[in-house]
Amino acid sequence: MRSALAPRRLPRAFGAVVILIALAEARCAQEAQKPAPSKKPTPEVTNTGPVPKPMETKEAKPPQSEPVARDLDAITADGTLPVIFTFNSTGYFVYRGETMGYEYELLSLFAKESHLRLRPVVVRDSKLLFEKLNRGEGDIVAAQLAATTNQSEVLETVGLYATSPVVVQRNDDANPTAGATPTVAKAIARAAPKTATETTQVRARLVSTPAELAGQTVHVPRSSPYRTRLLELNDELNHDIEVVEVDESSDRLIRELAGGEIDYTVAAENMAALKSGEFRNLVIRPAIGPPQPIVWAVRRTSPKLQNALNQWIAAKKKAGLLAVLYRKYFLDRRGFQRRGASQFLSAETGVLSPFDAWFRQYASVPGWDWRLIAAQAFQESRFNPAAVSWAGARGLMQIMPATARQMKVNPANPEQSIAAACRYLWQLDSQWKADVPNESERIRFILASYNVGLGHVQDAVRLAKSHGDNPQRWSDVAYWLIRKSTRAVYNDPVVKHGFARGTEPVTYVDEIMGRWENYREFVPAETTVPGPVPVPAESTSAP
Prior knowledge:
Blueprint: H1 12-33, E1 53-54, H2 72-78, E2 80-85, E3 93-95, E4 98-100, H3 102-113, E5 117-122, H4 129-135, E6 140-146, E7 154-156, E8 161-163, E9 165-170, H5 182-191, E10 217-221, H6 227-236, E11 242-246, H7 250-258, E12 264-268, H8 269-278, E13 282-287, E14 292-299, H9 303-319, H10 321-331, H11 333-341, H12 346-349, H13 356-362, H14 370-381, H15 401-407, H16 414-432, H17 439-452, H18 454-466, H19 474-483, H20 487-490, H21 503-522
Parallel strand pairs: 2-5, 2-6, 10-11, 10-12
Antiparallel strand pairs: 1-6, 3-4, 6-14, 7-14, 8-14, 9-12, 9-13
Helix pairs in contact: 8-11, 13-14, 14-21, 16-17, 17-18, 17-21, 18-19
């Protein structure tokens, strides 16, 4: 039996805890000796103007018209959310036939979760952004707007992200193509003035603080929101900064800077960082001001919409969605370079796909806008001529095997696929012309018939007519097409073709019509398009 005075053995677990505590104390001591991590600058609104400032386009003017009385309840009743966009390389653009962009994706999701249909309204003259907003042509302005402290003209949302104004400069090597990839270098050389010589290239010293810009020449776009900050810096320096305002975009000025044509410019940090992936001789520093919050704008008469957007943005920030999309559009430099180098960045090139020439050629068969045929092709196959569906449909326009045999075409050949689809659209147009004389409505009937079959759409027309709806109005017929998936409806005596998954063709029509609307904004109808890109041999083999 152990004596009461005998030393007691401590449990092993207790000894382990003592060791862990000692290690933790040692680590804490080491961490205490490290310098504290530098905090990110706090976003600060420095714009005091009457309206927010677009980052990449001309400065917007305050609206002249009083705002229409339209808030969230009216928008919800209408079912449509028109959003005013400007073309830019990260917020709203079409790439390989698909509408994309940081602000576009966010607002598309907001509309979807609010049970609304997003309708993009493209404004090419950014001076009119807020005038069109007040007139009711759009309910939100999403144009990379730098916030203002003055919300007397329009209301702003909370910030989506913030970006600082930074000096963009070039390292010692002033060779116009030294910082570029081979493809970009070739493009720079081609675009350079023929009279340019090496003697015109000036080697500029690198600056590390804003004060070192004193006595230097800085080129900025005439629309730059950073011009005011540069003028403020002049008041703080002994020698003025020569600010040269030019009718060029920040993107173009950075390209000229990389080529040695200018020495300094000021741009948004996130955009400049993306361009540094394209031009490797860029130096993105120093910042000349605090980060500026980027916001959306709504009318003064839309406080409920503003509140709904603010709550939605806060929830998505917390869930991490905004960070994911920011990474996709602003941090993925490879993706940005691929878009910039692609001939299918439609706002820049006017090209939707490698098959535009064939879309234009065969669209005359049904008498349609070629961009509508392109929108349908994207919906069918995402412009993939080798696509095969679960049902066996093949090719760019997803021609079914029986239809291909009937029309004697190879659906895997993109030209034959487009030609066959356009002939079929013409046949469907002939079927519907007498019953649906309005062309805009008839297009929807034709597209639905292409997708689900003529018989099912004719069933929906008969159902609409027998229930007192308008058989010539697509919205009424679409309702009954969707209802054809329920037993009571597909067993109705007027139904001849039975059950149908009607939601699919109705969605098909909506998405094509929405995409066509986007394509019309980005690509003019009368553009000179390159010939079709040759298709690899394996994608043209017989099915």
